[in-house]
Design goal:
Layout: E1 20-24, E2 34-37, H1 39-42, H2 45-50, E3 53-60, E4 74-77, E5 80-82, E6 88-94, H3 104-117, E7 133-137, H4 144-156, H5 164-175, H6 188-206
Parallel strand pairs: 2-7, 3-6, 3-7
Antiparallel strand pairs: 1-2, 4-5
């Protein structure tokens, strides 16, 4: 793949994207709709519920969400609050650029799969059991979430997305990323990492 270099021009403001974008409808292996959002869409619990989203996979290391309702907070240590959230929440924690371990993108793919494949035990300590649609987010919903979803689609639907490039083009379009942002959305270093992760995953699955 030829990865274009970022042009040496004055940075332009990023185009405003939808709070929530339906990227893939009814994944044939999992039967769920896949959404992408930035921080604004992900933090809107009513919006998530309106779209049947029960699971969030957060790709950003520099962003967190509190899905625990205040009325349900549990605290037995001063300054610490925790309890069952309104959303099943998974965290990947990628940097939007260099600095991620080579294996972290591969881990991101398998965490996303785990969010869809986990079978929770029948115990009161696992109260959030709904299995609905899934949202993958980062701060802006432009780079980290786009590459993680693209890698997932390429690896789980190889007939429809035979290359990572094909999956990225599809996800960019569905997310509404303008063409003048493609050089940085997703970041080139993340695309390179996803290429390596795809090759490793294919070797793992072939065993």
């Amino acid at each position: 793949m030829n990865i274009s270099q970022e042009p040496e021009t004055k940075a332009q403001p990023s185009a405003e994207l939808a709070k929530l974008s339906l990227v893939y409808q009814q994944h044939p292996l999992y039967g769920v709709d896949i959404y992408i959002a930035g921080k604004e869409g992900t933090s809107d619990l009513n919006l998530l519920r309106q779209n049947g989203i029960t699971t969030v996979v957060n790709c950003a290391v520099n962003l967190d969400f509190n899905f625990v309702r205040q009325a349900q907070l549990v605290s037995d240590h001063e300054g610490s609050v925790y309890g069952p959230g309104e959303i099943r929440y998974y965290k990947i924690g990628l940097i939007d650029g260099g600095g991620n371990p080579d294996t972290q993108m591969l881990a991101a793919h398998y965490i996303l799969r785990a969010a869809l494949e986990q079978v929770l035990p029948e115990k009161p300590s696992y109260p959030r059991r709904e299995m609905g649609n899934i949202l993958i987010n980062c701060r802006g919903g432009r780079s980290r979430s786009v590459i993680v979803v693209s890698l997932f689609l390429h690896l789980t639907l190889p007939t429809e997305f035979p290359t990572l490039d094909a999956a990225i083009a599809f996800v960019r379009n569905r997310r509404g990323l303008p063409e003048n942002e493609w050089y940085k959305a997703p970041k080139a270093v993340l695309i390179e990492s996803a290429e390596r992760a795809a090759s490793w995953a294919k070797m793992i699955e072939a065993k």
